[in-house]
Design goal:
mainly alpha; 2 strands; Mitochondrial carrier fold; 1% strand; single chain; two-stranded antiparallel sheet
Length: 528
């Protein structure tokens, strides 16, 4: 912490050696003090649970914030320093000027987050009560972070623990970089950080530093490209305790629904090209759209979208619950998994979720391929399939679909983590927040690479799901279909429909991100 701010918090230490002397330096209150009733007498109070510096199992620090018994007076002094215009409220401009005087530099965005987090009456500033409440609440978050970093449980954080914690998040830094992080917080030159140093450094910072990486770099809840094979996102302990996790999932599901609906015509065109495009019957994008509109009008462009949207909620919920259970089964006691563990747990969770809702995948393909008047709706389609083909028809293409999870999820995760690491190491000097464009670029690139790797399996899956609707040709197995496509169409036959598939990636990612951010605000999701 900068010396001036350290002085504001810690000048009360003199009260330990000079009892009865008001460390605030005044006898009868301070001009502009939110409560002019403070006296020159030292008031002794026993620390209580939840105070700054008190921790169950540890001896209480002499000050609830920083070293003396007069916690409330110290807060009033700090409030007065930050309340630059003396109007009894701290706004962003007050924080900017006040913190600069104290030697603390924060971006305008960070200061806005502080005010927004504490502003309960939504008047654009923090009164004294809101200021105290914000600091108390923020200190609790910081303690959670400190404990998660303190791997040895010795009350101190060293460079190895910082490196390990970041490695658990998929971020690799050198020991030199870890020591640089330490030096910025280490006040006594021990090259370790105790709880007081950690708290003092971060108390007027809007986020908890390392967990920012999880919060800012969420991937699967934010981006929806129409394929639900991504490894689920990690949620912090705090998000699970406060119930923020389900709001993230609801926001992600809503964003996916809007995104899929907006790009449904391209998705239906992809399915038609995967099933009906051959060497002898080449279907291009303009011709495909024209054919769909001529056959069923503009509304036909959205065939199959209803079931595609409906399946988002159960699939997301099942995948999340399965992922959390698998984490426990594989014995990880860490808040966040390493990349290899995430891939294993995520792939298994994806397989469980896909198995649970796979009949809906078959229905989506059949509804996308249907002719006008063939089915009256989703239930009618399911009834026809069951009566004519039996229960087994609802699991056609299941094997190539399961096989496609590993290359898709693995490559998407590896590319995303690589891009994330690269950005964090080169550009994350003050904040882990990458900004909208970096997030969109990373999400689009990784999703595209994942889709490209598993596309042949996705095409074979779609052909198998649709075989009963094709009048010509026998019903083939997965290997038989692979051989048939390569023999009759060549290797490029495995990539039919790739163009409309890639055309929808950028709009899908962009739309899902914008809607996700809007729904987060609506649902009250806080980013610390």
């Amino acid at each position: 912490m900068p010396p001036l701010l350290d002085d504001v918090f810690c000048q009360c230490r003199s009260a330990e050696t000079h009892p009865g002397v008001d460390p605030g330096g005044g006898g009868g209150g301070h001009a502009g003090d939110p409560s002019s009733a403070s006296t020159s007498k030292s008031v002794t109070r026993q620390p209580v649970s939840g105070d700054w510096g008190s921790d169950p199992g540890q001896s209480a620090h002499p000050c609830d914030i920083c070293g003396g018994p007069e916690q409330e007076h110290r807060l009033k002094v700090l409030f007065q320093v930050l309340d630059v215009n003396g109007d009894g409220g701290i706004c962003v401009n007050d924080l900017t000027i006040g913190l600069k005087k104290l030697g603390v530099h924060r971006t305008e965005h960070e200061l806005m987050k502080i005010v927004k987090a504490g502003d309960k009456d939504l008047d654009g500033q923090l009164d004294f009560e809101e200021f105290v409440h914000y600091l108390r609440d923020h200190e609790k978050k910081l303690r959670l972070v400190f404990k998660s970093l303190d791997k040895k449980n010795d009350g101190r954080i060293d460079s190895q623990e910082i490196m390990q914690s970041l490695r658990d998040l998929g971020v690799n830094i050198s020991e030199e970089q870890a020591e640089k992080i330490l030096k910025s917080m280490d006040k006594n030159g021990t090259m370790t950080i105790d709880w007081n140093e950690w708290r003092d450094y971060h108390l007027l910072h809007p986020a908890g530093n390392i967990p920012e990486i999880i919060l800012y770099w969420k991937h699967s809840t934010i981006f929806d490209v129409g394929e639900s094979l991504l490894v689920p996102d990690e949620f912090t302990v705090e998000e699970k305790k406060t119930g923020m996790w389900w709001r993230h999932l609801v926001a992600g599901a809503g964003a996916g629904a809007v995104s899929r609906t907006c790009t449904a015509p391209l998705d239906r065109l992809k399915v038609l090209m995967q099933v009906h495009a051959f060497k002898s019957n080449s279907m291009h994008i303009a011709g495909g759209f024209s054919q769909m509109i001529q056959e069923g009008g503009m509304r036909s462009l959205w065939r199959g979208n209803g079931i595609n949207v409906i399946k988002i909620a159960p699939e997301s919920a099942i995948k999340f619950m399965a992922y959390e259970q698998i984490k426990r089964i594989i014995g990880s006691n860490q808040e966040t998994l390493g990349m290899a563990e995430r891939l294993v747990a995520g792939s298994l969770a994806g397989a469980i979720a896909q198995s649970s809702i796979y009949p809906m995948e078959v229905l989506k393909t059949r509804l996308a391929l249907r002719k006008t008047g063939q089915y009256s709706g989703i239930l009618d389609c399911a009834k026809h399939i069951f009566q004519k083909e039996g229960v087994a028809a609802f699991y056609k293409g299941y094997i190539p679909n399961m096989l496609g999870i590993i290359p898709y999820a693995g490559i998407d995760l590896a590319v995303y983590e690589t891009l994330k690491n690269s950005w964090l190491q080169r550009y994350a000097t003050d904040s882990a927040d990458p900004g909208v464009f970096v997030l969109l670029a990373c999400g689009t690139t990784s999703s595209t690479c994942g889709q490209l790797s598993s596309y042949p399996l996705a095409l074979v899956r779609t052909r198998m799901q649709a075989q009963a609707t094709l009048e010509e040709g026998p019903q083939m197995s997965m290997t038989g279909l692979f051989k048939h496509i390569i023999r009759t169409e060549g290797p490029m036959g495995l990539y039919r429909g790739l163009a409309p598939n890639f055309m929808k990636v950028i709009p899908s990612v962009s739309i899902s991100y914008v809607v996700y951010e809007y729904l987060k605000i609506t649902l009250g999701v806080q980013s610390k």
